[in-house]
Amino acid sequence: MALDGLVIHSIVNELQSKILGGKIDKVYQPENDEVVLHIRNNKENFKLVLSASASNPRVYLAKDYKKENPINAPMFCMLFRKHIQGGNIVNISQVGFERIVKISVESLDELKEKTTKDIYIEIMGRHSNIILTHSNDNKIIDSAKRIPPSISRVRQILPGMTYNLPPAQDKLNPLDDISEDEFIKELESFDGNLYKSIYSRFLGISPVISKEICHRANINENLSTSEYSFDDLRSLYKEFKGLFKDMKNNIYSPCVVVDESVDKIIDFSCVDLTMFKDLSFVKNDSMSYIIEYYYKTKDIKDRVHQRSSDLRKSISIKLDRLYNKLKKQNEELIASENADIYKIYGELITSYIYMIEKGMESVEVQNFYDPEYKTIKIKLNKNLTPSENAQKYFKKYTKMKTAKIEITHQIDITKDEIEYLENIMLSIENCENLAELLDIREELGRVGYLKSSSKNKKETKLTTKPHEFLSSDGFKILVGKNNKQNDHLTLKIASNDDIWMHTKNIPGSHVIIKSDSKDIPETTLYEGAMLAAYFSKSKMSAQVPVDYTKKKNVKKPNGAKPGMVIYETNNTMYVTPTDELVAKLRIKEN
Asked: What sequence ranges are listed for the domain NFACT RNA-binding (predicted)?
């Protein structure tokens, strides 16, 4: 997802209305590719963020900006302060319909004479840049990213060089008066899908806007233009024209599209994305608000993923070792199943002791334990007496029987550990913020899987809340986000008559249906089971078994790991989880 020409058009319009004529009080550079201008205009303070980040380039007015600035300002920041700090913004514009913003600043030079500098913010993915130039001759003062000939032979960005705009694209500007014939001709000249032809032939349009235009015209976006009738293409032109008429009139509908079932941001735009009508929207009159909301949320997700990578790797390694350990233990268990044969050897030697002499290496006797009384050959140690050989087999039998009991016990321990760590891995994958990740790290440190930075082994207070849902019948349903929350939900929040749910023998969250001393309807039980299946390792599976019982039947054994409980007198329901139902039941946070 990137800022397309439409979003740039919208943000420039907002900047013109809020900071045009404003004074630049301060300049900061918290990142190598990011500059923040503190602006005072009409008795209001603004923070204008200019970012040339390769992954998230953007321009917007920030409300909640908390990045720390370096102790020593970078050279590029010092140049900005020298040339534009104290100056007034005299012009803000979009270059053509490109993803380029131009900001002109008028200030006084060393001789107290008026001079104008231009800031170009180029939003072009990894080629994004912030460039400061002299307005009178377009000479480059400096840039956030210097581009020498060794990087690009086509276009260099270096101090002292003349600034030239990026090479023009062979596309039509959708803000120009494009006739219906021109529009259809452009589409037909492209060999490919219809929606691709729109953003390939017209400037500043992103794939999502192309698809939105097709959706509004009720046309299949994936077919080629040759597969449509002339009337279809005329309908497409009508929607295209209407959308850009709003652009010309500065009519925007800034929004973020959110899939609440998976708590994921799908896209954002300055136009109403009607093709996502079944999903949720965050809307605001300010494009800056939408941009900040999107990137702030995305930044949290990225940071959670980044900071959990070492944790996921560590748990994954531990799980692989446990899987191998369990495999070997099962092999040992199978071997121990043959212990009875050694008892038979000992008893047969004792029964036929009169036939055996010291020095014999084997003996063949009739096996009276066999229904057919078949002859069996028993190996002997020639250095032992017949009685000693019998005792050797009895001891081996006893040893293997004892080993079987111990191996079975160890297998149970290994399985419990695997179940626990699989639950941890599921919780990590479902983390929505750093606080939830911190809860998991704290838990792993407390139970000994990670080195704890704190000497205090006691459990700390919960820093996050569980998922909250409301059933179709009006019953609150709570879902734990991690083991710490699972324990808190089941052992502290749930009443004895509440319904407890969990996927059967599958890692997943504890689910509590608050009964308020009422009978729980079948619909609510089904919806609770759906949530239990959805927030489990079997989220993508069909017919997932979910156990449920009253909370009073759920116990936590002494010494059990977080999230681990035992239960009895349960029922089992089979459900197939869906995103739509989860989104429908979720209680929206204020």
From this structure: 465-561
Question: Measured between alpha carbons, how far is 236 from 230 in angstroms, rounded to an integer?
Answer: 10
Report yes or no: 144 and 122 within 8 Å, Cβ to Cβ: no
- Shared-domain flag, residues 422 and 479: no
Separation between Cα atoms, residue 140 and residue 585, nearest integer Å: 56
Predicted TM-score of the model (pTM): 0.67
CA distance linking residue 220 with residue 199, whole number of Å: 16
Whether residues 328 and 364 share a domain: the answer is yes
Task: Report yes or no on 107 lying in a domain.
Answer: yes
Q: What single-letter amino acid sits at 257? A: V
Structure tokens at 158: 């270096």
39 in Cβ contact with 48 (< 8 Å): yes
pLDDT confidence of 453, banded at 50, 70, 90? low
Residue 321 has pLDDT above 80, yes or no: yes
Average pLDDT over residues 186-192: 88
pLDDT > 90? residue 133: yes
Pure H helices in 217-286: 230-248
DSSP 54: S
Helix axes 5-18, 287-336, angle to 10 degrees: 130
Element counts in the chain: helices (H) and strands (E): 13, 22
Neighbouring residues of 137: CB distance < 8 A, sequence distance ≥ 6 = 162
In whole angstroms, give the CA distance from residue 529 to residue 534: 8
Strand order through the sheet with 544-550: 467-470, 476-479, 511-513, 499-503, 544-550, 571-575
What CATH number corresponds to the domain at position 267? 1.10.8
- pLDDT of 590 reads 45
Strands 264-269 and 280-283: unpaired
Note whether residue 150 is domain-resident.
no
**Is 295 a domain residue?**
no
Question: Residues in the chain, how many?
Answer: 590
Q: Is the pLDDT of residue 311 over 80?
A: yes
Residues 328 and 429 in one domain: yes
> In sequence order, what DSSP letters do the residues of 121-167 get, joined into one string?
EE--GGG-EEEEEETTT-BEEEESS-B-TTT-SS--B-TTSBP-PPP
pLDDT in tens, 525-540: 999 999 999 999 998 8
The number of distinct structural domains making up the chain is: 4
**Could you tell me if residue 543 is inside a domain?**
yes
393 to each of 136, 382, 384, 450, how far by Cα in Å?
102, 14, 12, 45
Average pLDDT, the chain: 91
- The residues facing 365 across adjacent strands are 376
Cα 505–chain centre separation: 25
Which tokens hold the place of 569? 């007198």
In 3D space, the residue among 393, 391, 396 whose CA is nearest the CA of residue 376 turns out to be 393
Question: Is residue 501 a contact partner of residue 546, using CB atoms and an 8 Å limit?
Answer: yes
The identity of residue 348, as a single letter, is L
Q: Which domain holds residue 99?
A: 5-143
Are 577 and 534 in contact by the 8 Å Cβ rule? The answer is yes
